[in-house]
Design brief:
The structure holds 2 protein chains of 2 kinds. Chain A has helices at residues 44-52, 74-77, 94-99, 107-120, 136-148, 166-183, 194-200, 218-223, 228-233; strands spanning 4-15, 18-29, 33-37, 59-64, 67-68, 79-82, 154-158, 186-191, 203-208, 211-216, 238-244, 249-253, 256-262, 271-276, 281-284, 288-298, 301-308, 311-318, 327-332, 335-339. Chain A is of the alpha+beta class. By secondary structure, chain B is an all-alpha fold. Chain B has helices spanning 2-27, 38-45, 47-80, 86-92, 101-112, 117-126, 137-163, 166-174, 179-208, 211-216, 223-232, 236-261, 283-311, 330-337, 339-372, 378-390, 393-403, 422-444, 449-456, 461-472, 474-489, 493-498, 506-515, 519-541; strands spanning 81-82, 278-279, 405-408, 413-415. The chains are: A alpha+beta, B mainly alpha.
Amino acid sequence: MQGSYLKVDGLTKRFGDHVAANDISLNISRGEVLALLGPSGSGKTTMLRLLAGFEQPDSGSILLDGIDLTQLRPAERRFGMVFQHYALFPHLTAGENVAFGLSDLSDKDAARRVAEVMDLVDLAGFQHREVSSLSGGQQQRIAVARALAPNPRVLLLDEPLSNLDPTLREKTRTELRTALKEIGITTIFVTHEQEEAFALGDVVAVLREGKVEQIGAAPELYENPANKFVATFVGRASSLDGTMLENGRVKVGEGVEWESRPAAGVVSGAAVDVVVRPEHLSFGETGLAGVIRSVRYNGARAYFTVDVSGENLEVESSVHSASVGDSVRVSASQAYTFVKQPA
Amino acid sequence: MKRRTGLILVGFLLWIVVYPIAIVILESFRDAEGWTVTPLIGFVREPSEWSALWNSVWISLASVVSAAVVGIPLAFVFEKLEFPGRRILGALVALPAVLPPLVGVIAFLFLYGESGFVARIITEVLDLDESPWRLRGAGAILLVHSYSMYVYFYLFTRAGLAKIDSSMTEAAQSLGSPGFSIFRRVTLPLLKPQLGAAALLAFMTSLGSFSAPYIFGGGFRVMTTRIVTSKLNGDMPAALIEATWLAAVALLGLVMFRRFSGSRSVAVMSKGMAARAATIRQPMARWGATTIGWLFAAFLLLPHITLVLVSFVPLNGWSTEILPSSYTIANYITLLHEPERLRPLWNSIWMAGVSTILVLTLSLWAAREIVQRKVRLRGTIESLLNVPWAVPGTVLAVALATMFSVSAPWVGRWVLVGTVVILPLAYFVRNIPVACGAVVAGLRQIDPSLSEAAASLGASKMRTLWRVTVPLIRPALLAGGALAFVTAAGDFVTSVVLYTFETRPVSIEILGALRAYDLGMAAAYGVVLMFVSAAAMVVGTRR
């Protein structure tokens, strides 16, 4: 990754016994949008608060353009932040909220800047509205406008779309992406939804228990997951036990061998975790024997949950290929294999 | 940086809150010879002291019971039943709160005293030779206490009932519980924290109550009056020992009531619909409830009306008649035109104002340390803020009088007794719990990310405080400030220990007028104080 603009080096933060951020390192280029993706409790919000300066790390450093910011207070960092619940000041109007960070400018310049960013978020003319009279989507855009108004060096967003209803979410996502790219601002945002991470982020960092599991662009994470957690957390996948064979294939049952993409460290003869995506599984004459337990329809395709000796496999197939209760055989065109992790 | 401001705050609170009380306790273990427990033991051996302490305790417990008996049913009636005038009456019922303790006491004196309106009417109607009763002793004190303290039970119970989610009682109904069983097994346990808080408040107020025993006590002595008498007689060692004993009893009461009510609030676990008041449909019941409601309101308002009436009575203008024969506004004119008459009023207002500004500043500081910066010492700070509340006002006054009558700057003691500083300082210390309680609670309700948002937008700490924090907690600041101001402006118990002629507040002047038998003047001061208090409460509860 050339020319890193924001560099996070070995950042660690403990709350009592709990390690919320465990030796996290990241490099972000200027203008890049990074998504921090992880389940709740993975430390992604702590990461964002460390970057904003609301928390002080126990060790590690944050550098911007080669200058260490770790000791700077939030007010000195010039990082914009959009909070999950927006944190709009309820006693100020929309325009006063946006102007809050512009106290260095003259009233005239501030008003001009407010009009500019409110136009950017498509809320021109809303300056005098009470915050409480705005819809959820409008509040979200005011929060973005407020954070952008002082021309921050980095924009931080905490679950920016989580408080919007699903129909609005997709539209706002597209608009946000367009706005971020138009300004070309370096952005880090936190989300627990992979769809959001992939749609908004140029690069996605998958977090678990305070550690970065993998960083990469969406296709890379999907096609080359670094471990079982990333493989199952990013995209849909089922997992089962297997044994690695010498020919590079993996044995998942008596006489059943699948094509595999072994991860680093997998040696032949070892017991491995096998992870398969629904689209790589199909019904056929050979393969693992199982019974269809349930079907979830999704347009012309459907997801079948197949019970294979106690393990559930999810298979994507055409709607009419099977029905609940059928005995089927399942085979895979491709499977990931990982060194078995202690359960 | 973070730790230092917290430490400074703890240091300040230790100096102004704990140190004076510690001095009182330490001094009571000393005599001319050196360290000793003889005087403390002597206290126990002295029957008059012992009975005063016992009087204090039982009258406080009795006050709690009688206040609860009036306040709790009243709260249920106003929260659960809908009848004509419910809204207005519900507000009127809180009226005793705007009567400062001494003013309430003299209003009772004019109304129910042996030469008060009620006694005169009965004497006249029954053609008696003398008043059928004397408003004296424990009964009189208890009457005043229940009048002023049922408000705690009324307000706390109503607040508790409003918070109880109707789905909880509905759940009990759907599980087949009959009405009374729901009350006993669901409603009461949910109200327990509120009832416990009200009981504790009533107990501590009664234990520290001074005005009622002072005016009505007669031969019935309680600890507060004994302490003040000892202090005014110049017997400081006795005052210190008595103060130590009263403080010990207060602490014991605090611990026991806390244990009863538990510290957890269980009433706000879910958000949902509050129960709606049931409309009474039956005409007779409807009329009954309305009549009882208005009669009760009239009873509550009588002291206020009496006070206003008496304030128009000229000197010696009310001797044997049922109602005074002549009325005049001369008392008010005198009050406003004679500089020496106006001075106490001005004193009360400026001293209450200064102490209120100081205590609000402290409460903002403390709230920021406790809520926003979450300093490690926040538990300590919160406990220290509550100390003045656990100590009866008389004890606090004696403690401050002791601490600030010695010049020893190297141990943080200066001579302030006899200066204009001591009374505002005493009011300030007394009001720390109420003001800080309101402001800390107010700040707790503010989303912490609001001040973080301000910081991330480059705002300095001062700018965040003035542009974001203060406007957001304005209701809490106003409420806490109003309560502090009202308490300070109407204060009698600390003032009587610490005032000088130049700094005498209204309460002391009322006492003077009463002793000169200038009832009209005393009532006029009381009316002014009542309106000042009411105005402050109106400002304080505005949203």
